[in-house]
Design a protein that fits this description.
This protein is an alpha/beta fold. It folds into two domains: 217 residues, 3-Layer(aba) Sandwich (Rossmann fold); 150 residues, Rossmann fold (3-Layer(aba) Sandwich), CATH 3.40.50.2000. It has 16 helices and 14 strands. The strands form three sheets. A six-stranded parallel β-sheet has the order 2-1-3-4-7-8, sandwiched between helices. It has a six-stranded parallel β-sheet with strand order 11-10-9-12-13-14, with helices on both faces.
Length: 389
C-alpha cells in the first residue's frame, strides 16, 4: 500500500509530531510505501503578523499546489493528513479529492470548533462556540493569539469551510481518540458515520521498564509547562507531601513554577526519549492535571507502557482513558486540596499503585501497543480502498 502522510510540525515538538513520526515508521515496518510531506512552523515569518498567518489558513494556494503535485507524482492509495494549520490549509483536502484518492484526517485537537483548539477560556472549559460555525464569541474574546483580527480570520476559516462543505465532501474518514471527542465533532456537524476511534501508541519499553518487582517512588509530570496543562495547580498542591515530584518538560511557565515550587519538586527540563523512559520506569505515579479537554494525550500510552498509574483531571477524554480505581484515579481539575489529598493517598499506598500499574500495562498490551494500533489503522485504510471516493 502506498501512503502519503501530510503534517505541519510545531515549533516546540509535541504529541502530534510524535504521533506522525511513530505511525509513519510503523507503517513502513509493516511493508507500506510511505511518503512524508512536511511543513515546518519554524519557517513561518512572524513579521506577517497573526492576521496574515490566519488568513493563509483559510486558503493556501501554495499549500494546495504543493500537495497536488506530490499526489500526482507519488500516486498514493491513501492520503493521511495530521496537522494542516496554518501553512497547508484545508485547501489541500479538495486538491486530493480532485485526484480521486481517499483522504483520512486525524483530528488531534478541536480547532474546527474552537479558535484556540482547546475549548479553554480563562482557565476553564468553554464550549460557547460549539455548534456555531461563525464562532463570533471567540472573536470578541480574542481567543486566537489574544488578537481580534487573527481570531476573526480563524473564525472565517472555520465558517468558510463549514459552508463550503469541505469536511463533508473532501474527507472520507476522520480519526479521533475518544468517544468524548467524537461527540463534540458530531455536535459541530461532522458526519458521525465517518468518525472512527483510533488510540495513539508508543514503542514498547519492555517488561522490565514496566515492572513493579523493584521499588518505584514519587510522581512525575510529563508535558509542556503551559496554563492549559494545569501544572500550576499541581505545583501548588505539592507541599508537605513526603514524596518527590519530577517535572519533565519546559514551556512559558517554567520560571514562575520554579519560583513557586516547594523543595520536594525537581525540574528536569526536556529530556531525550531514553531518559524519559528511565524516569517513567522509576516513578510510582503520573500526574495529568489538565484544565483543557485533552483529545488523546500521548502520555496516557507512555504511562501504560511503563506500567504507571495515572492521577488525572476528571475532564474530557480522560474520563474514559483513566479508569477509576483500575488504572488510576480522577480528580476535579483545579481543586488543589483534592489533588494534594489524592496524590498523597496513592503514594502512601504502594500495593494499590502496583496493582493499578499492572492493570495499565495490560491495557497497553490490549489497546495501545504498536501492533494493535497499526492493525487498526491498516484496517481503516483497507476499508477505504475497498470503497474509493
Amino acid at each position: 500500500m502506498r501512503i502519503l502522510i501530510i503534517h505541519e510540525r510545531y515549533r516546540q515538538r509535541g504529541g502530534e509530531d510524535a504521533v506522525f513520526d511513530t505511525e509513519s515508521a510503523l507503517l513502513e515496518e509493516r511493508g507500506c510505501v510511505v511518503e512524508r510531506l512536511v511543513a515546518d512552523n519554524d519557517h513561518i515569518d512572524e513579521t506577517r503578523g497573526g492576521l496574515a498567518l490566519a488568513a493563509n489558513a483559510v486558503w493556501s494556494t501554495d499549500g494546495r499546489g504543493r500537495v497536488r503535485r506530490k499526489v500526482q507524482e507519488f500516486r498514493p492509495d491513501i492520503v493521511h493528513i495530521h496537522n494542516w494549520f496554518p501553512l497547508f490549509s484545508p485547501a489541500i483536502h479538495g486538491a486530493i479529492r480532485a485526484e480521486g484518492v481517499p483522504v483520512v484526517q486525524t483530528l488531534h485537537n478541536f480547532r474546527l470548533m474552537c479558535l484556540n483548539g482547546l475549548f479553554l477560556r480563562d482557565g476553564q472549559p468553554c464550549e460557547d462556540c460549539l455548534g456555531s460555525p461563525l464562532a463570533w464569541r471567540g472573536v470578541l474574546r480574542r481567543c486566537y493569539r489574544d488578537d481580534t483580527k487573527a481570531s476573526a480570520a480563524v473564525a472565517a476559516m472555520n465558517c468558510w469551510h463549514h459552508l463550503a462543505g469541505t469536511w463533508r465532501r473532501n474527507v472520507d474518514l476522520f480519526l479521533v481518540g475518544s468517544d468524548f471527542a467524537r461527540r463534540r465533532f458530531v455536535a459541530a456537524g461532522l458526519p458521525a458515520e465517518r468518525i472512527a476511534l483510533k488510540p495513539n501508541t508508543v514503542c514498547d519499553p519492555g517488561a522490565e521498564a514496566a515492572s513493579w518487582r523493584r521499588p518505584r517512588r514519587g510522581a512525575v509530570f510529563l508535558g509542556r509547562l503551559s496554563p492549559e496543562k494545569g501544572i500550576a495547580d499541581l505545583i501548588r498542591a505539592w507541599r508537605d507531601m513526603g514524596h518527590r515530584l519530577t517535572i519533565v518538560g519546559d514551556g512559558p511557565l517554567a520560571a514562575a513554577l520554579r519560583a513557586e515550587a516547594s523543595s520536594e519538586v525537581d525540574f528536569a527540563g526536556w529530556q531525550d526519549p531514553a531518559r524519559v523512559s528511565s524516569i517513567l520506569s522509576e516513578a510510582a505515579l503520573l500526574c495529568l492535571p489538565s484544565r483543557c479537554y485533552e483529545q488523546w494525550p500521548l502520555v496516557v500510552a507512555e504511562a501504560a507502557a511503563h506500567g504507571l498509574p495515572i492521577l488525572a483531571s476528571d475532564l474530557g477524554a480522560l474520563e474514559s482513558l483513566v479508569e477509576e480505581d483500575v488504572t488510576g484515579k480522577r480528580v476535579t481539575p483545579g481543586d488543589v486540596d483534592a489533588w494534594r489529598d489524592a496524590a498523597r493517598t496513592l503514594l502512601d499506598s504502594p500495593a494499590l499503585l502496583a496493582a493499578m500499574g499492572q492493570n495499565a500495562r495490560q491495557v497497553y498490551a490490549c489497546r495501545y501497543s504498536p501492533q494493535v494500533v497499526t492493525d487498526l489503522l491498516l484496517g481503516h485504510y483497507a476499508r477505504l480502498r475497498a470503497s474509493p471516493p
